[in-house]
Design brief:
alpha/beta; GIY-YIG endonuclease; Rossmann fold; 17 helices; globular
Amino acid sequence: MPEGLVAEVYPVLRLPRRFFVFDYTIPQEMNLQRGQMVRIPFRDKTILGVVRSVGSKRGNPERLKSVLERVKEWIFDDVEMDFFEWLALETAQSVSAILHVAIPPLPKRIPSLSTNISEGKSLRVRASESEEISRALEKMRTYRECFIHAKDRVQMAAMVVAYAYMHPHDQLAIFVPNVWDATCLLPYLTFAGVTLLTGEESPSHRLAAIQSFRKKETRIFLATRAGSLLLPACVDAIFVLRSSHESYKQSDRNPRYDARETIRFFASHRACRLFFLDVMPRTEDMVTFGPDRLCISTHALPEMIELNREKNVSPHPRLSYTIFQKITDVLESGKRIFCVYNRKGKARALRCEDCKKEFPCPQCGGVFTVYETTIQCHHCGCIEPIPLSCPGCGGSHLIERGFGNRSLQEAFQKAFPGITVSLLEQNHLEDLEAHILLATNVYTESILNSFTPPTDIGCVILLDADLPLHESSAQSLEQAIRMIEELRGVAFRLRADFLMQTHVREFFQTYYQNPLSFFQKELTLRNTYRQPPICRPMRIMRRGGDVRQSRFELEHIREQLEGYHPIDVLFSFFHSRTTQACPILSFSVEQTYVPDLLVFLRTLPDHFIIDTNRNL
């Protein structure tokens, strides 16, 4: 290279958001270009860096350090570099911090990687599903990007496998929301050679997996959210399975990104095909793909039991007469029952009847859940013994409100003596072979393998379809319907009946009468009330410090934000297991103003935790 050139380098290091690039001189015998990985001296150690640009010398080059070495095995092209810079802006982070998360440490020797990680299996589906799978493949031929409906995870996998057989020369990237989904799906993809990346591998094996797919030693790149930061350039088609799952958004640590958005960026800049597959789309998909490319199958109305109509003849407020009759019939046929109820404990809350005092958690202000001898806060983990009297008025008339899964377990055991009833929840798994399985979502998310399901379950029952409706979220109805459809798919794969209990049958009927019309109305409502996707919700929280000082600083930021353009601002308080309450500045901004606002957010000090696309 000509003498006197200087390289702008992003250090691969978790640097504060205010840092940009560092200048280094280039040895005359070294050729560098944008995207080249190098080794550089940084403070008192040698680290990796990625070249942003190469240009003529500026200022006093004698004071600059020199690039030490060019890493020949790794170079990023322009699209990949644009992606890292875009994601840094989108998440209000430094590019260096993004690179630090995306690039695993380079080992001295890259280990060999076995492409057949487990024994391959043949994927079998019912003959009745062939028509729906054929329709999906036709949509994939017609559209380069679209949403495709599938009954369950097995049918999604069948669509992907069929596509892989029809396009034998294509490199495919398949994303799943969690490690369990990847583990269940992996054996059915080994026919084409598969690279697995879940984020749980060691850095050396993670690097080996990425390099293996980049060199086209395998055809399929199977990954969770972690894989979306280093999508290889050779991908021809991307499949996002269970595309509505909340795990695609990283909300608990920086960078707080949504893998679906990073995948969309890659697909649009690489001109590769992109397919979202799930039991139902999100309202956001109406904007992402457009109504013409939402391939939604018509649904028959599931069997709904209205609790309000049966409350006078039901033996329990949460267990209708119809449910008890159905369970009796199924048990008599020699089959088992799978019930889903996403509320733990014995009761929802504790209350004093004398002074009407509730019992909030003293650490975080959340609601205590009642257990046999304790009250527990599921938000912060606080556990206290059940009080004998009200701390406010001294009264002893304390009553339990609502029902948890333990009270339903007692009701089942009382109604069906001699029948085993087991609870299945996080960190508490009882007998998986019991006659009645009373589970939270943990069973379907991390225990049940839909590809090899049990054959002795005769009925799947959603005991309270209304629970998501109590969440203060614009997506609450959408989430409630999605839970119904996911469990309906489980029942389909188990060859079992499906029933659900609800107080508001009419809420769900609107979707099943016309799914596309439902999403169009939902989008109109969100636009009216300035909810996503027309507006983008964000959040700023100060790490550490005094609560009053934090609030003062956030108030100052609020004034600065309002100087840019009108925004909807809400102050709230956040609590965690290890910290006291701290103020949060939550606000929503129209998509038009987002680019300017992101530039401003990157100027804030690093003690502010910024989520630029928070979940509502």
